[in-house]
Design a protein that fits this description.
By secondary structure, the chain is an all-alpha fold. 78% of the residues lie in helices and 0% in strands.
Length: 294
C-alpha cells in the first residue's frame, strides 16, 4: 500500500514553481498551432504518435522558457510583472532551473525523435537553440530581437506539418508565416503598454529605442503585412473560400483596431486593445484554415 504520510511530504509548491518556469499558458497556444500543423497534413500520424509529439512539443517550449527564466533571473527581479516568478522571488535556485530546463529539453527532443522524424527533431532543436542562445540575449541589445524571437515562436506549426509529412512544403511554410507575422504586432503592442517595465529590466524594446510614434506606426505596418499574408493563401491555392472569408473579416477588424496607430503614439489603452484582439485573431484564423482544408 502507498504510505499517505509520504504523499503529504511531496513539495507541491515546488512542483508548481517548476511548472511556472515553463509558462504553461503560452504552451496552450503553441500546442494549438502544432496540432493544426499535424491535422493539415495529408496523412497525419496515428493518434498515439501524435499525442507523444504534442506533449513533447509542449515540454520543449517549457524547456526553452525555463532556460529563458534562468538567463533573465536578474532582469525579472527588476520588472514588476516578473519579480514574483520562482527565480527572482527566491523560491527556486538558478541551478535548479538550469538542470530542469536542460533535462526537460533533452527528454522533449528525444520524444520528438522517437515519435516523428529527423526533420521535425532538427526543427525542434533549432527552435530551442534560437530562442535561448539568440533571442534571449539579443533583447538587451536591440529592439529587433523580436524578429529573431518570432522564428522559434513560429516553428511549432511547421513541426506539426513535418511530423505528418516528413517534408517541407508550401502549406507548412504558410503556417510558419502566419504565426511569424502574427507575433510582430502582438509583441509590439506588449512593448508599448509595458514599456516602463521593460525600461526597468533593461530590455531594449522598440518604444524605448525609437519612441512610441515609430513603434505605433511599425505596429500598423506589421499588422497590415500579417493580414495581407493571411489573405494571400487563397490565391496561392493553399486555402479556400471559407478560410478566405474568415481571414478577410478578421483582418478588417484587426486593421480597424490598429489603424489609429498611424497617427503616432495613441496610448496604453489602444495597445492593450490590439494585444487583446490578437489573442482572438490567431485562433480564429487557424481554426478556419483547418476547417477549410478538411
Amino acid at each position: 500500500m502507498i504510505d499517505t504520510a509520504v504523499l503529504h511530504t511531496v513539495p507541491l509548491g515546488r512542483i508548481r514553481d517548476l511548472a511556472a518556469l515553463g509558462k504553461p499558458r503560452l504552451s496552450v497556444l503553441v500546442l494549438f498551432t502544432a496540432a493544426a500543423g499535424v491535422w493539415l497534413g495529408p496523412q497525419p500520424p496515428g493518434l498515439g504518435r501524435t499525442l507523444v509529439f504534442l506533449v513533447a512539443t509542449a515540454a520543449l517550449v517549457a524547456a526553452a522558457n525555463t532556460l529563458n527564466c534562468w538567463l533573465e533571473c536578474e532582469i525579472d527581479r527588476q520588472m514588476h510583472r516578473t519579480r514574483g516568478r520562482p527565480l527572482p522571488a527566491g523560491r527556486l535556485t538558478p541551478r535548479t532551473a538550469l538542470l530542469f530546463g536542460g533535462a526537460l529539453g533533452t527528454v522533449a527532443l528525444t520524444a520528438i525523435s522517437a515519435s516523428t522524424n529527423p526533420l521535425t527533431t532538427g526543427l525542434g532543436a533549432l527552435a530551442l537553440v534560437t530562442y535561448v542562445a539568440l533571442y534571449t540575449p539579443l533583447k538587451r541589445h536591440t529592439p529587433w530581437a523580436m524578429v529573431v524571437g518570432a522564428v522559434p515562436g513560429a516553428l511549432p506549426p511547421l513541426m506539426g506539418w513535418t511530423a505528418a509529412t516528413n517534408r517541407l512544403a508550401p502549406a507548412g511554410w504558410a503556417l510558419f508565416g502566419i504565426l511569424f507575422l502574427w507575433q510582430l504586432p502582438h509583441f509590439t503592442a506588449i512593448a508599448l503598454y509595458l514599456k516602463d517595465d521593460f525600461r526597468r529590466g533593461g530590455i531594449r524594446v522598440l518604444p524605448l529605442v525609437h519612441g512610441d510614434a515609430v513603434a505605433s506606426r511599425w505596429l500598423v505596418a506589421a499588422q497590415t503585412g500579417f493580414v495581407a499574408f493571411s489573405l494571400a493563401l487563397v490565391p496561392a491555392g493553399l486555402a479556400g473560400p471559407l478560410y478566405g472569408a474568415a481571414a478577410a473579416c478578421c483582418g478588417l477588424v484587426g486593421l480597424a483596431i490598429a489603424a489609429p496607430g498611424l497617427r503616432g503614439a495613441t496610448g496604453e489603452a489602444w495597445a492593450r486593445r490590439v494585444f487583446a484582439y490578437s489573442l482572438l485573431h490567431l485562433p480564429l484564423l487557424v481554426t478556419a484554415l483547418v476547417l477549410d482544408r478538411r
